[in-house]
Amino acid sequence: MNKFISSLKRLFIAIVFALMLGAVIIIITSSKPSNAIKIFFLGPFSNKYFFGNMISYAIPLIISGLAASIAFSANMWNMGLEGQLYIGGLCGTYFACQMSSYPAAIAIPIALIVSFLVGGAIAAVSSYLKTKWNINVFLSSLLIANGLFPFVTFFLEGPFNDPKAGFAASPRFNQNFMFSKILSPSELHSGLFIALGFVVLFYFIRRQRVLGYEIKITGENALFAYYGGVPTGRVEIIAMFLSGGLAGLAGMINVFGSTGRMLGYMSMIGWNGIPIAIIARYDPIIVVPAALLFSFIQKGAEAGALFADITPQVAQLIQAAIFYIITAEGLFDFIGIWKRKVVK
Description:
Blueprint: H1 2-29, H2 33-42, H3 48-73, H4 81-98, H5 104-133, H6 137-157, H7 191-208, H8 210-220, H9 222-227, H10 232-259, H11 269-279, H12 284-307, H13 312-343
């Protein structure tokens, strides 16, 4: 518990410094910095609409952050989260469209399960290649994901396109399948409870179950784990499958909660899951505030674009500042440990 609180304190301090740097960026780039800073920091909390949208945007980020955390905990650098999210969302949406006449209680779980299985299967290929031929997971997952983008785009522009949309997008499924809204008129939806349920589930697995221990020990020292009787190959495949499955699920939850159909552009939700996991140090509980932080920055920038002269690029700069500051904070921890070892 003390270690957890210490991590939260260091995370809080790093975020404060990063947000201060964000304010400096706004001062440099804005013609009316005082107004821009006020809107950026207070805009997401100014009314129910903006606040609900901020929480809604964080829902798939929480799940993608969990996805990255599981893989990284096993030292499996899954860089294909965006592609797994993309293909999982496409397959889940296809099943939802084919089941438009079915009751929502049947169609929604099936579409979610399909998205999970497809995303997990794609991610598991990389771990299988590592086990079979020692192919680097970082590279294979990234290359496979890059191959998925044109594949999905082909379907959204061709056989699975809605001609009425006017752009690359799937047909709309039965709108009764959409998750119920929580904080009208915002986009906040009941998918929030699914995301928080997975946070609790994976926290419990990490802390209480044998699988959580095996993933952790494999990530810390795979050779030690192997000679200690842990089936490291199987654990790595399971970790990648769960990681890719959650990424695919994040894509489908975003469809059911917000977009109402699969859209033919990269959402960046999968990519953002990577820095969220690193900022959270792979802890499922800390993934939640880390995802909310990214959502706050994004929605603050959107409010700033509406009511001030803040551009989306400012949000990206602030996100990058937070990522690098917290990464550097972790690097300083490593240097301190290394120095203590040298002294001993």
